[in-house]
Amino acid sequence: MASPAEQLPPGWAAEWDATHQRYLFIETTTGHTQWEPPAAGSAETENAPPAGVTPAGGHGKRRQYAAGQTQAYYGGEAAPDPAYGQASAGLGVQQQGGQLFTPGLAAEGQFANQQQIAQQGGGTQGGYYGQGEPEYLNQQPQQYGQPPVDALANQFGQMGVGGQKQFSLYTTNLLTLPPDPRDLAQPPPEIRLPPNACISPSPTANADPSYFRSTLNAIPTTSSLLSKSKMPLALVITPYRSLNEGEEPVPLVTDTVIARCRRCRSYINPYVQFIDGGSRWRCCLCSMTNEVPQLFDWDQVRNQPGDRWQRLEMNHSCVEYVAPTEYMVRPPQPAVYIFLIDVSHAAVQSGMVATATRTILENLERIPDEGERTKISIICYDTSLYFFSMPPGSTDSSMLVVSDIDDVFLPKPTDLLVNLAEARGALEVLLGRIGEMFQENTIIGSALGPALQAGFKLMTPIGGKIIVLSSSLPSHGAGALKNREDNKLLGTAKESGLLQAASPFYKTFAIECSRTQVSVDMFLFSSAYQDVATLACLPHYTSGQTYYYPAFNAARSEDALKFAHEFGEVIAQPIMLEAVIRVRASRGLRMASFHGNFFVRSTDLLAMPAVPQDQSYAIEVQIEEAITIPFVVFQTAVLHTTCYGERRIRVITAALPTTSNLSELYSSADQIAITTFFANKAVERSLTHKLEDSRDFILQKLVDIISAYKASMTSSGAGASAQLAISENMKMLPVLILGLLKNVGIRQSAQIPPDIRAYSQALLTTLPSQLLIPYIYPTFYSLHNMPPEAGTIGEHGVILPPPLPLTSERLERHGLFLIEDGQTIFLWVGRDAVPQLIQDVFELPSYDALRGGKATLNLLENQFSQRINAIVQKIREMRRGVYYPHLYIVKEDGEPPLRLWALSMLIQDRADVLPSYQQFLSSLKDKVNGASGGY
Amino acid sequence: MGGAGWLFLFAVLMAAGLLFCMVFFIIMFSDLECDYINPIDLCNKLNQFVLPENIAHAFITILFLISGQWGSFLLNLPLLAWNANKIRNKAHMYDATEIFRTLGGHKKETFFKLGFYLISFFFYLYKMIVALIAESE
Ligand SMILES: [Zn+2]
């Protein structure tokens, strides 16, 4: 089928018409169509095709558009601006035609090409020797030239028209389309608001995905539509994310003129309407008419009339207000940090105490203390409690021992909790001495519960942050735990019991903490069972975070470095204190359930004594009544005290269009947000039910989505189909779900220690999408044949090699690969790696001299080593959050546990009982075809 | 009035008491939904009543058993088993951290118990009257 498209004059397109077996010619600017090939320059229209004709696409791809839709696409400015809510035009026909549009064809070619080149990479091995310049440096990157997505974007970009665009649905066949990791870096589907929805032209008027994501970027108008689509409706919010270098801080409204709706208490935002000559505004959430505050148009700084259109809250989706006194229950409290340091034998021997005290000492300067109000205290504990009294102005400190742990009391009313600035000298001396003080400590056991109670006593009534460093299972006093690890339970239905709290103490204490504005962070180091599941309850309900360093040993410099880096970042974080978060939404929408680290204080209020940076929360949304408005607004308000003692409100407003159209709903789905939400849901389910139930639940959700999609969006409808269809924007969802099902927190296995599982679950429920997605679907790079620019500094910092699909087919025996999930980095060395490569990267003579395990990569005097170091460095820095991944060297024929661990990240492979991606897809297909009778 | 009469009179009073207890629970739950009470206070309050309620119910069930009122005993047996199972699994107390997630279930359970005690109330009343009539004959 030779396409005449190439011979067309500019401005014309050709579409194959299946009914008439001839080409239909379309003038793209006007939407005119004709049967005759246009002469150059001709713009005359004759012979408009009869309505209902469905021209099929050229280029060998099957694509069908209704004539009306063709006009909408090709019509350009001449076509009437499609009114909001009419977007269904295209879909009906697509349903009728029902043919799959398969960019997979293009992608397949691409894929084959990639593989070919990879093999060529293999061929270079022979040529490696005897060349001055290592050839692996010269591998050309052209195979990564134009990813299929770009091609698509270009293709459809030509059809783009001005004004409000409609969502258009492109179906792909999963069976012919291998997942391309680069798709994960795509932004979520565009939010297409009706024209004039926003009163600000500012590009920041709608929330950035790093703050706010919705699983659907077009909200269904009725709950029946939502349930028909089987899609989850949930929000993923990260209200307090860290700022990248060079990023503007959140704009701050300082004049305390805070316009709020009288009825729903939402804050004024770029989506309200001014009415009555601008003297009133209509709330975009509840339609209430409100007075504009008198000082709204007054510039208080210059004391002159101001311009309301310039006000920050009218132009930014994310703003902060300085809160006046009515937003305070009490005056802003200083930030308080209490360190509870385990000094039992195990803790001292592992070097944890020395590393921790040194890190605190080094980071004293970075603890947020602008107003010199920050207070600090250090309590050490084994089976007794050791307090340190630091009188102001002195560099001396004295230790007070309390061995009565049944009824904890403070040995001294003052000087235990000291002002950081005033007691700086004493603190420095003390921190330098703690290590030796307990050097010879032979006491085994941990009175963590009493230590927590003591810290709690010390910081009430102020509140603040307790940072726990613990190396063993709590064994004395309140909150003592038993070793309940039982390998026989692993992999059985009873395993989820090990992931639930063993003692009510930690939950009760967490509630007390939440009440008194105390947040707890846990740093856990044990080499034996520590009951992470129970201990993680405290951070969970007090908005802290759990950090776990299994078998920590500071003698290994990598361990010490990782912990010191992460601990230092946690200490230095500018936390929000005494925070409450409320998410409001337009009428008809209700926040149904909340996932993340906080305490739910009322139906829609999340209490957070201290908000750490870069924690993510997932909220399931329910459609309670039919929505009649063209767009809805979600507003997240975080009332908090900064660690510098200022009461503020951070408001994040996000507007999303509504739709009554199933195809729009599917084409607006955000696969990243869906996966983030499902990760939370899976963990919740593994605790309330069983691990197996949680996997079945997630899998069933995916089957439901694909079944519903097939039934309503493809021609096969309820019948069996040889294809596995899903919309283009969700094509990574199955592989992400597979990754989730294979994640340590959820995976079917009888070998995962409960501590590791519990920690992984804590990560799954707190990581923001940016960190969570690689944690579920790791990144895989080939280093020995990376393109020459990879590892060098580009426009956006260090250039990373193109990511590969996660399958061991890509591993080559002579290659060097890197696999990372944001928490761990593996450097995989093939067994036939040439000595030159080993020499360049590891400074060792040959593969045999190389040892697997945790390692530090030295920067050597050669370009390849420098590039690899730059890549590792970039991987450690590019994402938000405090995590500093360990680097492991994995030899292809090295120790099996490490090798299997690294290979378990290649989630598209079959591993033990877990299916490969292909097997997963074919079982999905069977389920979908089997299940469709019910739909 | 003989043994059976007294027994059912006592049962009627107990059922009435339990009935009120359930009404109180339901009022508290709706207060929670309307933000009149925070989950911590709610759980502290309700948890005081959970064990007494279960014990009262167990007590009356056992009374039926030892007095040979098989019908009434069997009527109460399933709920007794349900309560006992919850206590065995340490799931009988309300958990403030999870209350909003589990609220629907709690409400369902409380409504069910309310209905059950209501039926029990009239059933015991009927049995009491029957017992009294039988005595007077
Ligand atoms: Zn309102």
Q: What can you see in these coordinates?
A:
The complex is a heterodimer of chains A (935) and B (137). Chain A is α+β, with helices and mostly antiparallel strands. Among the domains of chain A are: 4-179, no CATH class; 254-319, Zn-finger domain of Sec23/24 (SH3 type barrels, Roll); 336-483 and 503-574, von Willebrand factor, type A domain (Rossmann fold), CATH 3.40.50; 778-906, 3-Layer(aba) Sandwich (Severin). In chain A, strands 7, 9, 15, 24, 26, 27, 29 and 30 form an 8-stranded mixed sheet that branches. In chain A, strands 16, 17, 18, 19, 20, 21, 22 and 23 form an 8-stranded mixed sheet that branches. In chain A, α17 packs antiparallel against α18 (733-741) and α17 (691-713) packs across α24. Chain A starts with 11 loop residues before the first strand and ends with a helix. Chain A is built from 24 helices and 38 strands. Chain B has 137 residues and is mainly alpha-helical. Chain B has one domain (3-136). Helices cover 85% and strands 0% of the residues of chain B. Chain B has 4 helices and no strands. Chain B has helices at 3-33, 39-66, 70-88, 99-136. In chain B, α1 runs antiparallel to α2. Chain B is elongated and about 55 Å long. Chain B starts with a helix and ends with a helix. The interface between A and B is medium-sized, with 14 and 12 residues. Zinc ion is lined by residues 261, 263-264, 266, 283, 285-286, 288 of chain A.
What is the compact description of this entry?
Chain B: It is found in: Membrane. The complex is a heterodimer of chains A (935) and B (137). By secondary structure, chain A is α+β, with helices and mostly antiparallel strands.
